[in-house]
Amino acid sequence: MTEKPTQTAAADDPADALEQARRHTVDEDAGRLVNASRARLVAVMVSIILLTEVVPLQIGMTSIILPDLGLAFGQSAGNLSWAVSVTGLIGGATIALIGKSGDLWGKKRLLLTCAGLFIVGSLLCAVTTSWPVFLAGRGLESVALGMTVINYGLVRDLLPRTWIPVAVGFIGTGLAVAGLLGPILCGALTDAFSWRSVYWFMFIYMIVTAVVLFFVVPESPVRVRDRLDVVGAALFGTGVAGVLVYLSRGSTWGWTDAAALAFLAGGLVLIVAFLAWEARVRVPMMPLTLLRSPQVLLVMCCIFLVTGAQSAIGVNTAFIFRTPEEPELRASILEPIAAQAGTSVDALGSSVRLEGAVSYGSGFSVMQLALLVTIWLSLFAVAFAPLGGYIARRYGARLPLLIGTASAALACGLWSVWHEHWQQQALIGILFGLGAGFFYAAWPNLIIDSVPAGLQGVSTGMVQSFSSIGLAAFTALLGSLLAAHPLRLISALPDGGEKVSEIASIHTQDAFTQSYLLLGALPCLIAFGIGLALRSGRTPARGGAHV
Length: 547
Prior knowledge:
The chain is mainly alpha-helical. The protein folds into 2 domains: 24-228, Up-down Bundle (Growth Hormone, Chain: A); 297-537, Up-down Bundle (Growth Hormone, Chain: A), CATH 1.20.1250. It contains 22 helices and 5 strands. The strands form 2 sheets. It has a 3-stranded antiparallel β-sheet. Strands 1-2 form a two-stranded antiparallel sheet. It is globular, with a radius of gyration of 25 Å. It is a multi-pass membrane protein. Residues 1-21 are annotated as: Disordered.
């Protein structure tokens, strides 16, 4: 057994330094299952993965049923988007706090606490007829985002060190499986029952997986003998929340709207206040020396870029393949105009025309999109994530990060040219799946080998907060880019002029070509460059040993 003090903020008083070292000394191997059978270790790993799979499930399934929610609650599209954006808002604001709480009070305990809140939230969503109560339920569900932080720490504390690099890859696989099954499961539930069945399913699923985890997974004895920095947690959480509100709602309110800018300014001020507070407080939420270290800071930048690129690609894919085929699209727009004029579409001639290339549409249903397109991206990520973990264990986590970001950048570059047919999407998706699988096996291993066990939860939470900000930022950027390339309806006026109207939610070919390049390939290339600069991850992953 080895005992290692975690890094803390420098203390001016030697007595304070000794006290901090005493509080932060942890026995990293106290709960490690070194003598457990392979079957026991697999059961522990699978139990953790099954519980945390609910995070991508609840995000994806809620996104799919937004039209049903609009009919059930009588809400506009702008209000409906809160059902999804609340996940990033609440989850992003609380994820670092949950990670720190796991370091202090036990990771299994925090997993089960998050599970309990999720169960209550799912029940509220399933039974309520009130929109505010529904959003409150979604807020409780969103706290489960913190489970994606705790799971890595629990794996680090419990599994033999040689298992950890590959187990981290399997966690990425589990999240990809959830992303794969979500649309299919959601389609089956809503077709057979109603949108409420989605939340009943998540209610039951979480109860079952939480019970399994309770009996199968032991609690980690690794604790930091510390107290919670309540002020730091509040400053960081509310600061991140303010920035996320601006990024997620700016396109609806207006990017220069006074209220939107107030959220952005307030959020940034609070984050600066957090940094100032952490530099002075005796027991910081996370030592700034660690937060500023290249091993952590550069990984944060990478996950901001790659998560953002992935979110943009996901939205691109839905728009491209759910848009009707070009002949059907043109007919659906021009036939009502011709009928109103009492003539045929052909008779309209050049007096009414559409401007912009829209040859990409396929008119897929949600189920077709899942079975023909998204299933392949998820399957490839599932296949490559454990391999990425193995490469990290054999050669170092920097290598799969470099391969992953380069592969994803190449895929986005190819998609910018070939994205009109699902076969193209699936074939190029092999490269993107490799990139996603390798990246999500690499970054947790880089963090595990860079931070002490006593700071694993809060460190991963900080990194995941950057992921939430990246998702919101790139979604906002994509919305602005798509809005700049609408399909236009040109109508001739009696005085010889023309009236130009934009077709809602239909975008030209150039929009997707540019988004694949600017919001897909470019961020991944920047992440690749950051990976080249990384000094960590150049030796075989150690599962947190000797940190």
